[in-house]
Design brief:
The chain has helices at about 15-25, 25-45, 50-60, 65-85, 90-105, 115-125, 130-140, 150-165, 170-185, 190-205, 210-225, 235-250, 255-270, 275-290, 295-305. By secondary structure, it is an all-alpha fold. The chain is globular and about 65 Å long. It starts with 15 loop residues before the first helix and ends in a 26-residue tail after the last helix.
Length: about 325
């Protein structure tokens, strides 16, 4: 698969002091906001999205001060990020849009408070194949003055993904490299965000048949994501999938089988996994199993893939089975 750059995680600190500074409000309200954030994140981590949304509604209706909707918008952004990296793009997009709708009533259109929810909205819309909405969110991101390198990294990351999807590969490469440079300027060159950018860059190089450069980018991404404290399972699943396809392109079939097996093992532990992503992973794994003469296992994996119903319009994530080396038909 060719994956988008990763999402920024936990955009709002759970620290009351930091939230107070972000909201420019009093300590009691910021303490309530910090507690709301902790509660909501714990609930969605335990699969209780409805309960988290009800808690947000109760918080909003329990007071009339402006700090409450500002807090709710930021917490919604956090929730959207968590759901998105957990493979729940539809829920992530919905909450990100709600976050933007709340925050744009409080802040000016070019306030950086809108940058993170817009980035999540652009990313999730892209994953869902909603390119118009993704471009619209990205255009709004560009209108926000980015003074911090991590802010610029988010803009470059989305620019890279969109330009790659539109076939402008040299421009996509330049944007990936710019995003990586900005993460390093922010002293976050060893974080999941930088690892995701390298993953995207490696995928791009594979498209351009620059396999040596792809291997270097993916090896670096693997080193980062193996140690980054902010990396999550989905980051590693995506990387192992792309790495497995690269190994197949290089005729390293045993290594490809191992990488894709590990990716699928991790994917099967996820409570929710994007069906399009899972089907592509299964198809690629089955192709590698057949190449390694494991026909029985391949048929089982193919049956799993065939049983997955996906929206054919959700083509932002590309099935890269066609990028595998062409093999002669194998008799069943």
């Amino acid at each position: 698969m060719l994956w988008k750059a990763g999402l920024a995680l936990l955009l709002v600190s759970t620290s009351g002091q930091t939230l107070g500074q972000s909201l420019n409000t009093s300590a009691p309200v910021s303490d309530l906001c910090a507690e709301l954030n902790r509660t909501a994140m714990t609930q969605i981590a335990n699969g209780k999205l409805k309960e988290a949304e009800l808690a947000l509604t109760a918080f909003l209706t329990s007071g009339a001060d402006q700090a409450r909707p500002a807090c709710a918008g930021l917490v919604l952004s956090n929730m959207a990020a968590f759901l998105s990296i957990s493979g729940r793009s539809e829920d992530g997009a919905r909450l990100a849009e709600q976050s933007v709708q709340i925050l744009e009533k409080i802040y000016s259109p070019n306030d950086r408070a809108l940058l993170y929810p817009l980035q999540i909205l652009a990313s999730t819309s892209f994953e869902l194949g909603m390119m118009g909405k993704a471009r619209e969110a990205f255009k709004r991101m560009q209108s926000i003055r980015s003074q911090r390198p991590e802010d610029r990294a988010l803009v470059y990351g989305i620019a890279a993904v969109l330009s790659e999807a539109e076939g402008r590969l040299p421009e996509a490469e330049a944007n990936y490299l710019a995003a990586l440079q900005e993460w390093r300027k922010a002293r976050r060159g060893e974080t999941a965000e930088a690892g995701a950018i390298l993953d995207g860059l490696g995928s791009l190089y594979m498209k351009e048949h620059r396999l040596s450069e792809a291997r270097q980018a993916l090896d670096r991404a693997l080193a980062i994501l193996s140690n980054a404290k902010d990396a999550v399972s989905m980051d590693r699943i995506k990387l192992l999938h792309v790495r497995g396809v690269l190994q197949a392109r290089e005729d390293h079939w045993r290594g490809a089988e191992e990488s894709l097996h590990d990716a699928l093992t991790m994917a099967d532990r996820e409570p929710s996994m994007d069906p399009f992503a899972l089907r592509a992973l299964l198809n690629n794994y089955a192709a590698v199993l057949r190449k390694n003469h494991h026909g029985r296992e391949a048929r089982s994996i193919e049956a799993r893939a065939a049983a997955i119903q996906v929206d054919p319009t959700a083509a932002a994530i590309v099935d890269i089975t066609e990028l595998l080396p062409k093999a002669k038909p194998v008799k069943k």
